[in-house]
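Input C-alpha cells:
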C-alpha cells in the first residue's frame, strides 16, 4: 500500500506504540485496516467494559491482575473482574490460568489511541495515579515481609478508588514480585516520565530486596538510575542518599566498584549532613563489600566497626546484628576463626530474637565457616544446612549459592565426595543462572571430582 516508504522508516513506525496502527493502516476502512477491524469488537462492548478497555493504554506494564485493573478504573474488585471477563470474551484480552490478563501490543496501541480521543487528560492522569498507588503500596507491603527489620516508610495515602493487595507471608510476597516484575519496571519508567517522581524513587527502593536476592541486578540498576534522577528533580536529599546507597550496592553486585564507591561516598556524606545515623551506617556496611571485593579486608572491617558504633548510638537492633555478622565474615577472611565464631553466635542470637530469617541464614553460614576452619566439619555441615533452609525460605538465590559452596567444602572433608559434588554443582548452576562472575573456583572443584 505504501511502496514509496523505505522499510527502515516503516520499522521505526512499528517500533513506536503511537505510530504502530498508523503504519499498518491501509486507508480503505475495510477488513484490511487494522483499526477498523478492532473497532468492530470495541463498538460491541457495553459502555463500562469499553471504558476499562480504553484505560488499558494507561497501564504501564504488559499484563495485569484484577486488583491492578480495579485500581486503574477506580472500581471494586468484583466489578473489575466482571469487565475483564467481558473483554476476554470479546478477544480484546487474553486470560491465563492464574487470572491475569494480557493485551496484545496492537490492541494496546488501539486502546491508547481511543483513550487519547475519548478520555480527558485529567481522567487518564487520575487512572495512572491510582495504578501507581496500587503498585507502590503493595510493593512496600511485600518488601516488609522480605525484610522484617525494615522500617515502614511514611507513604502518602492512596487515592480513592485504589485497591490494595497485601501479601500475607514471604511466599506470597515473593510470588507477587515475580508476577509483577515487568510491570514494576515499567511503572518506575512511567512514573518518572509523567511527573510522579516520588512514586518513581520509592518504587525502585521497594523492589530492591527482590531484585538483589533473585540476581536481577541489571534491572535494579536501571530502575535506580531513573529513581536518582527523580529524587534530584524533587530536591529530596534523603531520597537521593537512599537511592545512591542502593545504587552503590547494585554496582557492587555487577563489579562496578569505582562507580559504587562514588555513590557510597555521596550517600554517607548526605546521611551525615541530615543527621541520619542508621542510613549512614547502612551505607558504611555496603561500602565494606567493595573493600572486601578489592581485598582490602582491614579497611572493610573498619567500615563495619564505624557502622556498628552508629547503629549502637541509634539503638537499632537489626543494624547491630548485621554489623556483628558482617564483622564475623571479615574475621573469617583474615583467618581469625575463633573471634569470627563469637561474633557470628552473637549475631545469630540477635537475629533469632528479631525473627529475621534472612539475617539468621547469614549468621548460620558464618558460624559454619568458623567451625570448618576450627576443624569441626560435622558441626559446620549442621550450620550450613540450617542456613540453606532459611535462605531458601526467603528466596535468596545469591546467598544460597554461597552456602552450597561452603557446604560442599565441609562434606568433602568428611569424606562425602558425592554430596560435595552435588552441593557444588547446585551452587554452580545458580551462579550461572545469575550471570555471576565468581564461577571459576566452583567449576574447578566440580571437575576435580570427575
Amino acid at each position: 500500500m505504501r511502496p514509496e516508504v523505505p522499510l527502515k522508516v516503516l520499522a521505526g513506525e512499528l517500533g513506536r506504540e503511537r505510530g504502530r496502527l498508523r503504519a499498518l493502516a491501509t486507508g480503505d476502512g475495510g477488513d484490511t485496516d487494522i483499526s477498523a477491524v478492532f473497532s468492530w469488537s470495541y463498538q460491541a462492548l457495553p459502555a463500562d467494559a469499553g471504558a476499562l478497555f480504553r484505560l488499558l493504554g494507561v497501564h504501564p506494564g504488559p499484563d495485569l491482575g484484577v486488583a491492578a485493573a480495579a485500581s486503574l478504573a477506580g472500581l471494586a474488585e468484583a466489578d473489575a473482574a466482571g469487565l475483564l471477563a467481558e473483554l476476554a470474551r470479546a478477544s480484546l484480552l487474553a486470560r491465563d490460568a492464574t487470572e491475569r490478563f494480557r493485551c496484545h501490543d496492537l490492541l494496546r496501541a488501539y486502546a491508547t489511541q481511543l483513550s487519547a480521543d475519548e478520555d480527558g487528560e485529567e481522567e487518564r492522569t487520575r487512572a495512572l495515579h491510582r495504578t501507581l498507588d496500587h503498585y507502590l503500596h503493595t510493593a512496600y507491603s511485600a518488601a516488609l515481609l522480605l525484610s522484617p527489620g525494615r522500617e515502614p516508610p511514611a507513604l502518602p495515602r492512596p487515592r480513592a478508588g485504589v485497591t490494595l493487595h497485601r501479601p500475607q507471608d514471604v511466599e506470597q510476597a515473593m510470588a507477587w514480585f515475580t508476577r509483577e516484575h515487568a510491570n514494576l519496571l515499567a511503572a518506575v519508567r512511567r512514573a518518572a516520565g509523567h511527573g510522579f517522581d516520588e512514586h518513581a524513587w520509592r518504587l525502585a527502593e521497594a523492589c530492591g530486596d527482590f531484585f538483589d536476592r533473585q540476581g536481577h541486578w541489571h534491572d535494579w540498576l536501571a530502575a535506580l538510575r531513573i529513581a536518582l534522577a527523580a529524587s534530584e528533580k524533587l530536591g529530596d536529599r534523603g531520597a537521593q542518599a537512599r537511592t545512591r546507597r542502593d545504587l552503590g550496592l547494585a554496582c557492587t553486585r555487577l563489579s562496578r566498584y569505582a562507580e559504587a564507591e562514588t555513590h557510597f561516598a555521596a550517600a554517607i556524606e548526605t546521611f551525615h549532613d541530615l543527621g541520619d545515623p542508621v542510613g549512614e551506617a547502612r551505607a558504611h556496611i555496603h561500602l565494606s563489600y567493595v573493600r572486601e571485593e578489592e581485598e582490602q579486608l582491614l579497611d572493610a572491617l573498619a567500615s563495619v566497626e564505624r557502622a556498628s558504633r552508629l547503629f549502637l548510638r541509634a539503638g537499632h537492633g537489626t543494624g547491630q546484628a548485621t554489623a556483628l555478622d558482617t564483622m564475623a565474615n571479615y574475621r573469617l577472611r583474615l583467618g581469625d576463626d575463633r573471634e569470627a565464631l563469637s561474633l557470628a553466635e552473637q549475631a545469630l542470637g540477635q537475629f533469632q530474637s528479631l525473627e529475621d530469617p534472612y539475617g539468621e541464614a547469614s549468621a548460620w553460614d558464618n558460624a559454619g565457616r568458623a567451625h570448618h576452619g576450627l576443624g569441626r566439619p560435622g558441626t559446620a555441615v549442621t550450620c550450613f544446612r540450617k542456613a540453606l533452609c532459611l535462605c531458601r525460605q526467603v528466596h535468596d538465590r545469591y546467598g544460597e549459592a554461597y552456602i552450597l559452596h561452603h557446604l560442599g567444602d565441609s562434606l568433602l572433608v568428611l569424606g562425602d565426595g558425592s554430596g560435595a559434588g552435588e552441593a557444588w554443582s547446585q551452587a554452580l548452576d545458580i551462579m550461572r543462572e545469575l550471570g555471576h562472575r565468581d564461577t571459576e573456583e566452583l567449576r574447578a572443584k566440580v571437575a576435580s571430582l570427575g
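The radius of gyration is 26 Å. The chain has three domains: 7-119, 135-234, 347-450.
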